[in-house]
Amino acid sequence: MPTRRPLADEIRPEKIEDMAGQTHLLAPGAVLRRLIDAGADVNMIFYGPSGTGKTTVANIIARRTQKTLRCLNATTASLSDIKEIISDAGTLLAPGGILLYLDEIQYFNKKQQQSLLEFMEDGRITLIASTTENPYFYIYGALLSRGTVFEFKPVSPEETEKAVLRALETQREIYKNQDNLILRWESDLPGLIAQSGGGDVRKAINIVELLTRAAVI
Hints:
By secondary structure, the protein is an alpha/beta fold. The chain has helices at residues 7-10, 23-26, 31-37, 54-65, 79-86, 110-121, 135-138, 141-144, 157-179, 189-196, 201-216, and strands spanning 44-47, 68-73, 98-103, 125-131, 148-151.
């Protein structure tokens, strides 16, 4: 079979309506949903466990605001990486501006976090930073004051199961079209996988991908 993107990326929702969980943030009338629907250009900090939709929402916001999305992970990124991204602002590479999604911002030290302020204040970037740690302990105060914190919560098994079913159906179509195989599963399997995810949708989808590969070997 040809190399494919990870299944979790393959089926990443492109619309708020397809998101699993986070209804306290994304239901009609909720603050974050209203900002997204309005195409608001604001700095945000997403706080919550892995696999709860932080990156997916950042992608949706980038499309809504017509900004060029650039992604960095603070565990490996440096100031030079940020400056390289900033150099694209206002050019044909980023005509609508840049939305920088900085994952695991808690790994940036105070000086690195401070370096972002200049670019945020002059409008060269809109920042969405994400963290799995309490931002009020790990993010520099001046940066916090320029953004709004939104807390993402573990996704319930019921909501996760919707994503699991979508992943299973996607895998069935892939193998049917490429290898002429028909995948089938017991009715209780999606619920069991959703429970195993422990609130992490990506983990549950990775389980689907692993089980599928094991089944067709």
